[in-house]
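Supplementary Text 2. Reproducibility record for the structural model of the 425-residue chain.

All settings were left at their defaults, and a single model was retained for analysis rather than an ensemble. We include the record here because the model underlies the residue-level annotations in Supplementary Table 4.
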Amino acid sequence: MSNLVLVIDTNKKPLTPCKPGTARRLLNAGKAAVYRRYPFSIVLKKVVNENPEPCQIKIDPGSKTTGIAILKGNQLLWGANLHHRGQAIKASLLSRRQLRRSRRSRKTRYRQPRFLNRTRPQGWLPPSLQHRVETVMTWVNRLRRFCAIGSIAQELVRFDTQIMQNSEISGTEYQQGELAGYEVREYLLEKWGRECAYCGAKDTPLEVEHIQPKSKSGSNRVSNLTLACRPCNQAKGNQAVADFLSGKPNLLGRILKQAKAPLKDTAAVNSTRWALFNALKATGLTVQTGTGGQTKFNRCRFNLPKDHWLDAACIGDVESLEMLTQQPLNIKATGHGTRQMCRTDKFGFPKRYVPRNKFVKGFQTGDIVRADVPKGKKAGVHVGRVAVRSTGSFNISTANGLVQGINAKYCRKVHGKDGYAYGIG
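Retained model, structure tokens:
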């Protein structure tokens, strides 16, 4: 079952989504037309005066992927996984900074560093984090144009079982209380990917393991803890990790490196959750919040697999859930290109120039096209994101890989460039 089809009337008034079969009959009868391919939306050729029952958007914010779901009551109508490009933005800014600083150490025109007198406004976020907030808001506003939305629900905080039992707990009692181990265990599950650090076993009971044994001066610090299945934990015993993995140097190095690594994804979500909440409040809609513990409880109660869009559907108080879709829309943020007039090598020197015109034969890089090639080695139908070339020979990134050298005369535009790439399921 795929997502339901979003519907608007001839005045672009958002209506309740309909089933794909209903949309197909309307299109075949000439009563509607395709308005947008992603998300798939149709426009009716008449005015609808009735007010549709409002739906709710639910959002499960994540560092790399954010889950989005649209529900009407207990019915899951539409879902999507939105993949962010925060790491790509960080890498680009880091590359630019390194190139600029390297000029000061080379025998080139000296650029004196600016005096650091620039202030940041309240609530400022780094571009890689601000991107996550703005991308989610882009899709919230886009879905509001195609679906009657009455409220929004967001997973805002993780549960803290100690505060839930005693809201006045603080200080040493909070840090060393009876449930402190549960918080550490949840942290380790996220950090080590919910699998045994030594053998990679999943879907099995995991035990908290000291990397450096306590009998050999190991501490209880989180940086000295990992997760292991019972066989690995018993096999290691009180051996030092270097002795236990003496024949696996690559695994030893990975464990020691990961043990000291911070939980970047959690830090990114914690940094952006309130900014996203305030942005959602600014829409004027009712914004409800839920906790991570409540989401996980609902997902396990409905026996659903771990996925971001399903987590979004389980946010808040959910008595029951009727699945009207099983195939979410995969949305990947690709950006809108660059304004550089020339490409540079790794040292920052000009390498090649960019054509002045973005459009070639009516297409631009980022469009989603359908190419019907009648004959030759590349005969067949290719659908995907296109990269244009001045010669008129395009490259198309399909679900099965990159197809190079497709002539523009075989291409037909399916969806215009909007900074995202799409997939189903």
